[in-house]
Amino acid sequence: MIKQITAYTLLSLVFLIISCKEPAGQTSQHTEIVELPIEFLEFYEQFHLDSTYQMDHIVFPLAQRRDGTKWTKDTWVLHKPFDSLGGEFSRDFTNINGLIIEIMQEKTGTITIERRYAVMNDAYHLIYYSIKSTFGK
Questions:
Q1: Domain ranges (residues) in the chain
Q2: pTM score, two decimals?
Q3: Domain with residues 37-133, CATH architecture
């Protein structure tokens, strides 16, 4: 009796999952529009075009390297403008009361890069940088 109930429950779950799936040929676009302040957009562009500006707008030592150490001016590699590499990477922004969180992710989820920006002394600064990879796990 318990086996029959379990079998019916599993079968019901399968039908539920299948019925929730979108019809073939249709894809869901759940794009959320995030409002980014014009000051941030100006900062973001300058940050990637001017190496001196970039270095001056990073709070060193910068939190989070994978091994727990912090990024320093000596270990920092200058960041270039975002490139999706032909759709291999996506980028999303979140604005939480002025704290801007940028997530860049490889489409399979193997590599995730997170950067956080905040206003300090009336200007945006990079306050956090992390690269996570599932390679070698």
A1: 37-133
A2: 0.73
A3: Roll (3.10)
